[in-house]
């Protein structure tokens, strides 16, 4: 079964590189129509409307889809010349839609000459660039943690757990009340990684901040490292009833509904989930906290990094308008609108973003330098993440063991780029 998953994943992989800027050259479009493909469902729509208002007479054809579907489609579209002018691009190298992966074969327009490119913090430049050239406009910083439905917690007479021991007790108590602790929608396989990343952040990096460097040097592996402990705790959470019945049969959209309406007490997700939950429950209050991975809160670390941004198709039919849209996203007005609608933190100072009060703990962790990048962003190829995602689904369906998944991840990591 694993080999089948791996083969399917391999077919969807993009290889990666660059193209010259020349935003106005060779456009070939009508200069009035822009095509955009995005995974930012629920937040990009307002940005598009604001862009259209600032540019009367243009037409924007926007399509949105889930990350899994998007990543499966984008390589085919790029290779066939049918890709949109502007597209979602993830930072780093961790998935089929990531910067390194689709910049390498020349699919992305070089945006290094845009004014905002030089203003990106160094940590963001590292994952927005390929071979020193900027290809991705990263507008928001995102974190991963446990997001609680405050009203549901109060109704259940429970409080958010502060230690690992408390977390397991919390899950058992919540299950006993008929309201599971967390919604988990791993029918969409990208969701499988989020709880694991939250556990890995503390288990691995609180005692070994150089783990990624040692991995790259061949001095560490997933198997035999604290990743095994994090995997075991993920499975223990499942056994303790932390999640609703049949996570594998629950999609991302359905999991939002469970958490928004109080049928679960929360959800383990990125901070972007808060705005989506509020769309389903406008009067709701939702608070993000670090997911406890140990009994020592002083060790807690949260995953936080540049989130998905936007790139321009090197063969865009309307490069002028595409670059104009990306510049708008990175402008103070565009970034403020996008990050407030999405519920993320801005990557550039001066955006004036009003941060959702539910993100106070994430903001503190960022300010206190108690965060680590999303684990996949600096892996040497996209295969590692794909193997992890499909492997975790197999673990939840009892078709594979966690140790086997980690060993397969090691094999893909060691295969390089």
SS summary, helix count: 17
Per CATH, the superfamily of the largest domain is: Periplasmic binding protein-like II
Note the gap between the termini.
24 Å
Strand content: 5-15%
At CATH level 3, the topology of the largest domain is: D-Maltodextrin-Binding Protein, domain 2
- Averaged pLDDT: 91
Shape: globular
> Oligomer, anyone?
single chain
Rg on CA atoms, Å: 21 Å
CATH classification class of the largest domain:
Alpha Beta
Short key terms for the protein model shown above:
7-stranded mixed β-sheet; D-Maltodextrin-Binding Protein, domain 2; 17 helices; 417 residues; 42% helix; 2 domains; alpha/beta; 4-stranded mixed β-sheet
What secondary-structure arrangement, pairings included, does this model have?
Blueprint: H1 2-12, E1 33-38, H2 44-54, E2 59-64, H3 67-80, E3 86-89, H4 99-103, H5 122-128, E4 129-130, E5 133-134, E6 140-149, H6 150-156, H7 164-176, E7 182-183, H8 192-205, H9 211-216, H10 227-239, H11 252-260, E8 266-270, H12 273-280, E9 286-289, E10 302-306, E11 309-312, H13 319-329, H14 332-342, E12 345-346, H15 360-367, E13 371-372, H16 383-396, H17 402-414
Parallel strand pairs: 1-2, 1-3, 7-8, 10-13
Antiparallel strand pairs: 3-11, 4-5, 6-8, 6-9, 6-10, 6-12
Helix pairs in contact: 1-16, 2-14, 8-10, 11-12, 16-17
């Amino acid at each position: 079964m694993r080999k089948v998953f791996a083969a399917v994943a391999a077919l969807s992989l993009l290889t990666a590189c660059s193209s010259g800027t020349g935003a106005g050259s060779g456009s070939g479009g009508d200069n009035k129509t822009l095509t955009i493909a995005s995974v930012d469902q629920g937040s990009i729509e307002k940005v598009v409307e604001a862009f259209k208002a600032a540019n009367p007479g243009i037409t924007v054809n926007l399509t949105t889809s889930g990350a899994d579907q998007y990543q499966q489609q984008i390589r085919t579209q790029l290779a066939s010349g049918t890709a949109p002018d502007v597209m979602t691009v993830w930072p780093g190298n961790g998935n089929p839609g990531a910067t390194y992966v689709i910049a390498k074969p020349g699919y992305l327009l070089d945006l290094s000459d845009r004014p905002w490119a030089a203003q990106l913090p160094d940590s963001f430049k590292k994952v927005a660039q390929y071979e020193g050239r900027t290809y991705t406009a990263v507008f928001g910083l995102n974190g991963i943690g446990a997001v609680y439905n405050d009203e549901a917690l109060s109704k259940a007479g429970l409080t958010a757990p502060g230690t690992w021991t408390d977390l397991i007790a919390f899950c058992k108590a919540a299950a006993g009340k008929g309201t599971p602790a967390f919604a988990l929608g791993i029918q969409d396989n990208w969701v499988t990684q989020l709880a694991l990343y939250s556990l890995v952040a503390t288990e691995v990096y609180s005692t070994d901040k150089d783990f990624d460097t040692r991995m790259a040097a061949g001095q560490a592996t997933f198997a035999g490292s604290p990743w095994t402990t994090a995997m075991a705790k993920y499975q223990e959470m499942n056994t303790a009833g932390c999640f609703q019945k049949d996570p594998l049969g629950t999609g991302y959209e359905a999991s939002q509904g469970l958490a928004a309406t109080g049928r679960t007490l929360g959800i383990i997700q990125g901070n972007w989930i808060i705005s989506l939950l509020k769309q389903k429950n406008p009067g709701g209050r939702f608070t993000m906290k670090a997911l406890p991975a140990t009994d020592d809160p002083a060790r807690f670390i949260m995953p936080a990094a540049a989130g998905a941004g936007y790139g321009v198709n090197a063969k865009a039919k309307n490069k002028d308008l595409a670059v104009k849209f990306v510049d708008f996203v990175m402008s103070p007005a565009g970034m403020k609108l996008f990050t407030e609608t999405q519920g993320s933190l801005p990557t550039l100072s001066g955006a004036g973003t009003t941060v959702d009060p539910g993100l106070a703990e994430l903001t503190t962790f960022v300010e206190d330098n108690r965060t680590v990048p999303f684990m996949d962003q600096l892996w040497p190829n996209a295969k590692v993440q794909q193997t992890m995602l499909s492997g975790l689904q197999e673990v939840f369906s009892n078709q594979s063991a966690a140790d086997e998944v980690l060993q397969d991840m090691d094999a893909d990591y060691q295969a390089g780029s």
